[in-house]
Design goal:
alpha+beta, Protein Transport Mog1p, Chain A
């Protein structure tokens, strides 16, 4: 009898409407948690500094180009972060699953880098040098767009890049 009562109490706490209702993960939710949100892409991210529109400084036909520099004049703590989004051609959205995989493989091959899975999507991870700084980028195709997250730094590229990529949320 005591065991049944204990189980009922435990399950009543777990299943109560107040605790059992999941919190919607949307732009408002992520903003309240300190993320910078891009609602048109269903994307939330926490960068080390506020990402701002840099599309005028970029070449190419990007749909979104945001970036920021933290500690710009530091010889030891410089971090540059970029988010670039480019929509895939319209035909991609209407292609069959096998055609989409073929297009994704071609696009990821063009981008170059190590093939990985990131946030459940095929992606490429690339390490390179940018203006003398250790740099890393990850590119993936999701929701009909190519997302590229870049970072260049002179301090702890692994740690800083991991913090950035661990903060990326799609909703």
């Amino acid at each position: 009898m005591k065991i049944v009562l204990l189980i009922c109490i435990l399950f009543s706490n777990v299943l109560s409407p107040k605790q059992g209702t999941p919190i919607p993960r949307n732009a408002s939710y992520y903003k309240s948690k300190g993320f910078q949100v891009f609602p048109e892409y269903g994307l939330a991210i926490k960068a080390s500094c506020l990402l701002e529109d840099i599309s005028r400084q970029m070449s190419g036909d990007n749909d979104l180009a945001y970036g920021c520099i933290q500690n710009e004049n530091s010889n030891t703590l410089f971090i540059m972060t970029q988010l670039i989004v480019k929509r895939v051609p319209e035909g991609y959205m209407h292609a069959s699953s096998s055609q989409k995989v073929e297009v994704e493989n071609k696009m990821l091959s063009i981008l170059g880098g190590e093939r990985i899975v990131f946030l459940g999507q095929n992606a490429v991870l690339k390490n390179y040098t940018n203006r003398g700084f250790s740099s890393r980028s990850i590119s993936m195709i999701k929701k009909g767009s190519v997302y590229t997250f870049n970072m260049s730094t002179n301090n702890d590229l692994n740690g800083n890049f991991n913090r950035l990529t661990n903060s990326i949320k799609f909703y």
